[in-house]
Write the structure tokens for this entry.
Amino acid sequence: MRSLAAASAKLSGGAFSSPGFRWFFAGLLLLALGATIGDVGQRWLVQEISGSPFHVGLVVFAGSVPMLLFSLPAGVLADRVDRVLMIVTARGIGALLITFLGVLTVLRVVEVWQVVILAFIWGTLVATEIPGRQSLFPMLVKREHLMHAVAIYSGVWSGSQIVAPAIAGWVIGLVGTEGCFFLTGVLQVTAVALFFQVKRHADTRPGERRQEGALEAFTSGIRYVRKDPIIAALVLTAMGTAFLGYPSATALLPSYAANVLRGDATVFGSLLTAMGVGALAVNLILAAGMRVAGRGKVMLGLGALWGILLLALAQTTDRAIAEVLMGLIGACSAGAMTLATTLTQMSVNDDMRGRVMSVFILTWGLASVGGLGAGALGSAIGVPNAITVGGLGTLLVVGLVCVRSPGLLRLD
């Protein structure tokens, strides 16, 4: 009972002792829920229109590749302008965009190329605001509460993977895919209103910075990462596993559900939900204050297990087994990424936080490239074989990091 009480106190205190973080949490909760519902709707809409794994992968690519193109300039912006305004501007425009997609779907004039273009614009808005969001929440909490805040931040997105797919599957069955897009628009607008409340409790403008030119500011984040061997190893591990591991568990999932498990949107949603359950469980454990000894080894171990589980997923055609495997994949991927994010946030100076985290965010841009490749590979050699390639690649990345960056293994 005492351990349960201690965990409850940790979850209700810590980062939540800051009123600014509480408003941030509320806005993030609706933002994540809406974004995930919209993402599920986009992927299932393309599956309905064309039934092509490549087209599904193309939409994932279009929505994520802006991370590669725009996250570094956005990181410079996050160190220069009010971070709340970055978030609410991008998400307000995004709400209008996703509502427009809903209108196209209602009118039955939507085509794959339109979804691809809208996904790219949406991804550009997200790439613009994420460095601001990643740089904002460490400003709202004490340093000793940072691990708690990162785990909560990650847990919100993990939790959205549980609730949102189930909601999306229910909405699609009830009113059609367009319902996902209209619901996302409402949730995004509400999130914007909540984020505005953060400014009442904290100064969300960046601190004083030294004078530097635009080009120097743009490249300084990359130089900072390259000079720090631990941060460099953390970023490279995250990038490599995201490039090969995430697409195998996400971009190929609609085709895996439809063609391998012979399921519908409900099955697709259940697989995403299982992944979210595993991820949320890990992040709740970390948010409750669990002490992780040898965090570098744990992070790499979780990455290796992630690859092994993908190999197992490729071999099964049983829905129940696939759901269990997706839950474990969610736990491993979330644990590895939460540890990598926490260690990076704790290692970086405040005046460089936006730029360094924008380099870290390139991880998700690489995941988009991997999504396109996984979709093309799935169309060429079959979805199970493409998942196998992703699992083997993830194992290879972890092995190379262990050999080339032994300092990461000693990180505690």
Notes: The radius of gyration is 20 Å. The CA atoms of residues 33 and 169 lie 13 Å apart. The chain has one domain: 10-201+216-409.
